[in-house]
Protein 1
Amino acid sequence: MVVTRFAPSPTGFLHIGGLRTALFNYLWARRNGGEFKLRIEDTDQSRNSAEATKAILEAFDWVGMDYDGDPVYQSDRFDLYRSYIMKLLDEGKAYYCYMSKEELDALREEQMARKERPRYDGRYRDFTGKPPEGVEPVVRIKAPLEGEIVFEDGIKGTITIRADEVDDFIIARSDGTPTYNFVVAVDDALMGMTDVIRGDDHLYNTPKQIIVYEALGFKLPRFYHVPMILGEGGKKLSKRDGAADVMDYKRAGFLPEALLNFLVRLGWSRGDQEIFTMEEMLEHFDPADINASASQYNPDKLLWLNAHYIKNSSNERLAKLLEEFGVYLLSHDKREILLDIFKERCKTLKEMANQIKEVLETPKEYDKKALKKAMKGNAVELLNSFCNTLKEAEGLHLPTDYHALVERFVKDSEIGFGKIGMPLRVALIGRLGGPDLGDVMSIIGKEESIGRIEKLLQYMKETDA
Ligand code: GLU
């Protein structure tokens, strides 16, 4: 049985690096029919917030990653940690250290003056004397004095740390609260983790955690330390690149499956395949195939994937999702044609909503540059004349009906298409670009098309005056 977990510290929003780690753990557990657990690492009360926990759960919900059982909160487990600290003290595997901060600072300075790496010197390790008065001791664990700590990382290979690089580190502070590396090791062991997949910023915590596992007689999981995601120019991923809140992607109009597909490919690959459905990820993902070097965040790729998933979504689903962006099409009579057109053109739901609004709503204003470009020469006259043609025409329903009308007009007036195409665009949607004119007119209908053209003509009259 494979058991994995995601263990965020709720100090802020869930960012995409975190979501990728969660996804890797999720996929590996589910692929093996195992369990995926969520543990909220909220021991540092001063840095944690309930909102951050809520935001993490909300992001999980959005992407549809389910975890087994209830989330485990470390803040509920202080008694448990305490009991394991007492056990190590009783067994002589940990000890009270009464060294004051001043003494520790002095030691550090001496060591640095001798060009040694600062480390605790073990002075209370075998202490049997009378403890100094008025000092609340910390608890330190007995780290091995010689040899090496060796473990096999599933991504980075064999990691070897000399014992003298790890000192007797603190497992409980003087106020009794347990430290990070201690609680992570205790929890991972008690929660039955078989595989720990996490960011490689934790690589050098692992030897310390191994010391805790060994002192408590726990079985070690397999470790996989995932290289980080780099932003533009190979720099650390910044807020601008996308280190921001996962929920910002929802607000920007991304589909969760596009984001997950994007993330699985950041550091993991299978041949040159780019598109992975959840089923395919579940079939093929193996943390042993994660790349040992850092991956690069590529916003264009995310847009490309999102466009793919939008194109392949049902209109029903898109109509529901677009409601969050202020577009209500569920019972709109032009729903199918609108969505068929825009799902082919748009890279995000937000873009789609904006473009659909442009079509459905009479323009409130006109793009200045477009006006200047489109309304040159005899444009007003032509638009006027097209308006009359439109008024007289009958039996206009399909986009092709409107196309034919425009084409005939172009031919009869002996003009280039742009001469009427551009003014018409500005009249209908307020700018140049946008979807096919025939599509637009067929969606809004003859009356509304006439209304919009007249509105622009009126505007031209007023601004000319
Ligand atoms: N709580 C840690 C973090 O958010 C992760 C610990 C772990 O995965 O072992 O970085």
Protein 2
Amino acid sequence: MSERELLISGNWKMNHTHFEAIQFVQALSALLRATPLRAGRALSVHPAFTALRSVQTALESDGVPVALGAQNCHESEKGAFTGEVSAEMLKKLNVSYVIVGHSERRQHFGETDELVRAKADIVLRHAMTPIVCVGETLAEREAGEAKGKVGRQLEAVLSARPPAVVAGMVIAYEPIWAIGTGRTASSEDAQQMAAFIRATIGHVAGADAAEGARIQYGGSVTPDKAGELLRRRDVDGLLVGGASLDAESFHEIALAR
Ligand code: 13P
């Protein structure tokens, strides 16, 4: 278990209308009142853009100890980008964390390492924290290329940044073969890759950056797998997809030890 604050994040992907999202927050709020988080843990939820405003209001009016997150943003300040959402718009909704470079965006929307870096830039410029996703495919893992792939993804997004900035970032290790497949990485695999990610941060941005940055694991996290993952030294939190859609299972994951 690390000494960094653990961050457990729910990535709702394209699920929950704003009505469903409000119901989720009300349910989670009641669960957290009954059984609060232990010290050293933080939560974030990442609704679709259409539910951000409703979730913000529900969290703030009830004083729910959960940060608001987004799943993506555009890399430009503003302009003629029909259908896109800017970092400034998110910041105005009190969004704290923005996921960038999720593998689904890299895969289905052609996001490159350069674009992911530009998105991290604009998130940081607006004083929010990027959750930068990295991870390898099954073919890459089987070919022994997992570390090479993840190392390149990290270098592209982290190089030439002040160490203090890198220290404040969150990296989510999400092996693509584990996402939505029910095939969670073993806690040993998660620890090994998290340790590799920390070492790479150290090479790119120095020891203080490596010590401060938080590394999440994501990919088929469930309440019964969460505790074992969170006990690993270099795993500082979880990025949860499917199991974060239900308030009870997300709450169980948040409490896991
Ligand atoms: P699942 O937990 O549904 O596998 O999704 C993981 C993920 O992609 C979180 O960003």
